[in-house]
Amino acid sequence: MYIQTYDTTVCEENAILIDYSTLMYPKGNEGGYVAVGTKVDGIYKQRMVTVLDWINAIDYDVNCYLSVNTYYKPQRNVRSVRHLNAFYVDIDYYKHGVSFDDVMHTLQHHIEHERIVKPTYIIDSGRGIYLIFKIEDVPGKYKQTKNLYSAVQQYICDLFADVGADYGAKDIARVLRVPTTMNTKANKRVTILEHNADAIYTMAMFRELVYPFGLERASKAPVRASEKKGKLKYLYNAYTLYKARSEDLKTVCKLRNYDVRGMRDKFLFIYHYFMMQIHQVEQVALYYTLNLNEDFVEPLEEKEVKSLVKSSVRAYYDHLEDKTKGYNYKNETLIDLLEITEDEQVHLKTIISKDIKYARNNERRKASRRSENGLTKRQKDKLSLIERVQELHEQGVSNKQIAEQLEISLSTVKRCRRAVL
User: Fold this and answer.
1) Under a CB-based contact definition with an 8 Å cutoff, are residues 173 and 76 in contact?
2) Count of C-beta atoms within a 10 Å radius of residue 264
3) CB of 176 within 8 A of CB of 68?
4) CA–CA separation, 240 and 116 (whole Å)
5) Count of other CB atoms within 10 angstroms of residue 367
6) Number of C-alpha atoms within 13 angstroms, CB side, residue 40?
7) Taking Cα atoms as reference points, which of 296, 248, 238 lies closest to residue 270?
8) How far apart are CA 80 and CA 347, in angstroms?
9) CA 31 to CA 59: how far, in whole Å?
10) Is residue 61 part of a domain?
11) How many CB atoms lie within 10 A of CB 41?
12) Each residue's pLDDT tens digit, 300-349
C-alpha cells in the first residue's frame, strides 16, 4: 500500500484532493503519470507528473484539469495509457434547457431500471455535472480493453443524451476539472456534491451493461432534450428503446413457447434490425439473432438466417445516413406484424397498444393518489369526518352543535353518525 506525501501546507482543499487521489489512483506511482493542465486567459498548458506529485502541481485559483486515466510514460495519448481507472460522463445540462434536478431524476431512473449504477462521484464542474464511476483499475495497453472502455463510455453517454451528455468528452485520454479549483467562466469552484466511497466496480460489470460482444459501437450524435410544457419528457432514448423492444420480442417468443412457425422470418428480421441499432456491429447482431433462432421449436438453417438479415444490414446503414430511411417501426406496426395479443402485451414494456398504455398510466396515477391503506385523499377526508362526528357525539355534543362546529349540514352529521367504521 502506498502512503501519499505532499507539501505540508495542509488546507481543506488539499485534504479533499488527497482523498480523491487515494481513491482514483490507489497504486500510487506504480500507476505511472497523470496529466495536469491549466487554462489561463484562454491559453492551455499541460504537465505530466507522477501520481504521487500531481496535487503539488495544482493551482486552486485557475482552471485546472486532471486526466482520469494514467500513463506509463509522460505522454497523454491513447497509446501510452497504463491504467484505466474510471468511467465518466460530462453533462452540460445548461446547454440543453434542462436543470440539475432533471439530471438527478434521469440518473435515479436509470439506476432503478438497472441501466447504470450509483456514481462514485457527482461533481459540479461550475456549470455542468461530472458523474464518475470508479472501477478496479485494469491495464490499458490491450486493444480489446480499450475497445470495451470506449463502448462503455458510448453507452453511458447514450443514457444521458437527453440531459446534455457531451459526446466530445468521452475518450480514454480525457482530462476533467479538478475538484476545489476554479471555473473562471462561471466564477465558481468545482465541488464534489456526492462521494460514495463504496461505489467501486469492475470493468466486467460494466461490460454486462452493454452486452459481452458490444465492443465496437460507433459514435452517435447527441440527442437533444425533448421539452413539454417546461418539463423534460422522460422517454427512452434511441439506444434504450431498441434494447427494451428487443427484450419484448424475446418475451413474446417465450410466451409462445418459442413456437413461432409462420412468422419466424418476421421475428428474426426485426430482432436483427434492433440488434444492429444496439451494437452497430454486423457480427454481433448476427450472433444474437442466431441465438434466438436456436431457441425456436423449428429453427431456420444458419445460411437461411444469414440470407434473411442481409436487407436488415442494408436498412441499418441507410438509416445511419438518413434517419427517414430504414425501419422506424411503430408499436401498432409491430403488434400487427407479429400478431401480438393484448394478453401478451400485459407482459411487455414498450410494444403495447395505446389502450394498454393509457390503462397503465391511469393505474399509475391512481396508485400515486392512494395512501398506504389504499385510500384516495377524498376517501381519507370522508373517513376522518365520520370519526370526528362520532367522537363528538360520544362526548354528548348535539347534532346541531356538531354541524356548527364542523361547518357541515345536519343531514351530513346524521349520515356520519349512521356510518359503520
Assistant:
1) yes
2) 22
3) yes
4) 12
5) 9
6) 8
7) 248
8) 49
9) 23
10) yes
11) 6
12) 999 999 999 999 999 998 888 887 888 888 889 999 999 999 999 999 98
Phi and psi at 36, nearest 5°, equal -115, 120
Reported as a single tens digit per residue, the pLDDT across 145-182 is 888 899 899 889 988 988 999 988 899 999 999 999 99
Joined together, the cell numbers standing for residue 144 give 480489446
Contacts (Cβ under 8 Å, ≥6 apart) of 374: none
- Identify whether residues 26 and 136 lie together within a single domain: yes
Residue that the C-alpha cell 370526528 belongs to? 388
Supply the mean pLDDT for the chain.
84
Q: What is the 3-state secondary structure (H, E, C) of 148-204?
A: HHHHHHHHHHHHCHHHCECCCCCCCCCEEECCCCEECCCCEECEEEEECCCCEECHH
Say if CB 203 and CB 86 are below 8 A apart: no
Supply the DSSP symbol for 197: T
The boundaries of the domain holding residue 105 are: 12-232
When divided into structural domains, the chain yields a total of 3
CATH number of the domain that residue 25 is part of: 3.30.70.1790
User: Is beta strand 129-139 parallel, antiparallel or unpaired with respect to 200-201?
Assistant: parallel
